[in-house]
Amino acid sequence: MTRVQISGVGKRYPGRGKGAAEVVAVDDVSIDIASGEIHAIIGYSGAGKSTMLRLINGLERVSSGSILVGDSDIATMGERELRRERTEIGMIFQHFNLFRSKTVAQNVAYPLVVAGVATAERRERVAELLSFVGLGDKARAFPEQLSGGQKQRVGIARALATNPGVLLADEATSALDPETSQEVLALLKKVNADLGITIILITHEMEVVRSIAHRVTVMDGGKAVEQGDVFDVFASPKTETTRRFVATALPTQPDPEHLRRLQQKHRGKLVSVTFRDGGVDQPVVFRTLAERGIGVNIVHGGVTEVGGRSFGKLTLELIGDELQVEHGIAALGQQTDLEVLV
Ligand SMILES: Nc1ncnc2c1ncn2[C@@H]1O[C@H](COP(=O)(O)OP(=O)(O)O)[C@@H](O)[C@H]1O
Ligand SMILES: [Mg+2]
Questions:
Q1: What CA dihedral angle connects 235, 239, 316 and 254, to 10 degrees?
Q2: Which of 10, 180, 198, 207 is surrounded by the most beta carbons within 10 Å?
Q3: What 3-state class would DSSP assign to 168?
Q4: Rounded to the nearest whole angstrom, what is the distance from the C-alpha of residue 169 to the centroid of ligand 2?
């Protein structure tokens, strides 16, 4: 069980070329990741996500701040201690980074060879790992004989070989099709639930965050601009960056262009109603409208699961007598999060 405490971490790179300005890749980032948590770091390209991950596994050294993995401060550790500490931190990559000339079993065994584990124990451990990731029958295959999803499973088995407390994933599903992506995410969920391993994953895909993360940090320009439980961040994003990400994963409100088309097709009043666990439920909304003789057309949106809870927005066309519709909107506005669109 491993907690990761990132406090006030900064990373600056010298500018490329003479007189070029310094690059601040990571700027005063603090993230407290509980033992056994799946924490997603999300942001656009250039936000500083990969740099953050390289700082956590000590591949790069911080310019300021501290990074505690368990009790060890990665930021101030010497190279030799760091090599030992890395067995505590597994890592998987977007393009898998497997050895092409080694078999699946040899790839998975590699960290154990480096750690000096005896042959018999190594064999046993590799068999156990391959069965855990569902590749028990692929031990003798070579990476090029595997699908993308299978390659990433090998990557995960290899990352788990030394029994790490933390697993880092850099865009681990970005090179996979959506279905294979879901399989790999399910395996990561199992790694977390069955083995209690803390997972830090960076991604630009909000769908990844929605389906497996407990908490999320949004990075922008090297800074952590938003942080919290996935549900809270999705349900009430506070920055424009987060809002744009959320819109890619959730059925939210129609964009202005879509709204214009809806307006041409639908004569009634268009309103957006937010549904969330613990909020008003749909039957109450529809009954309130029906009681006033207001007809309802669902024209956009939906409800989905975020961090294990329901959340979504529906755009409704309200049809009926103008005054009744006004009263209906007023009544709903008291009970729920309602926005009149046109
Ligand atoms: N080794 C480096 N030298 C100089 N600048 C770098 C280096 N690595 C990353 N950067 C810069 O730091 C910023 C953050 O990069 P990165 O961490 O790769 O972002 P992300 O993974 O979110 O796309 C970018 O502006 C990038 O150009
Ligand atoms: Mg990156």
A1: -130
A2: 198
A3: strand
A4: 11
54 CA closest ligand 1 atom index: 17
Atom 1 of ligand 1, nearest CA residue: 13
Q: Per the confidence metrics, is the pTM higher than 0.90?
A: no
Domain check: are 323 and 274 in the same one? yes
Q: Give the end of a domain, one of 186, 218, 249.
A: 249
Which residues are within 8 A (CB) of 320 and not within 5 positions of it... i.e. 6 or more apart? 268, 292, 293, 294, 295, 328
Among 11, 50, 51, the mutation site with the greatest number of ligand 1 atoms within 8 A of its Cβ is 51
Tens of pLDDT along the chain (342 residues) come to 899 999 999 999 998 888 888 999 999 999 999 999 999 999 999 999 999 999 999 999 999 999 999 999 998 899 889 988 888 999 999 999 999 999 999 999 999 999 999 999 999 999 999 999 999 999 999 999 999 999 999 999 999 999 999 999 999 999 999 899 999 999 999 999 999 999 999 998 888 998 899 999 999 999 999 999 999 998 889 999 998 888 777 767 788 888 899 999 998 999 999 888 877 778 888 999 999 999 999 999 988 888 778 888 899 999 999 999 999 999 988 888 888 997
Residues 245 and 264 in one domain: no
For residue 116, tell me if it sits in a domain. no
Give the ligand at the shortest distance from the Cα of 51: 1
Structural domain harbouring 67:
4-104+162-249
195 and 315 inside one domain: no
Strand duo 166-170 + 89-93: pairing: parallel
Indicate if 82 and 230 belong to the same structural domain: yes
Tokens found for residue 123: 């064999």
Q: Residues 189, 336: one domain?
A: no
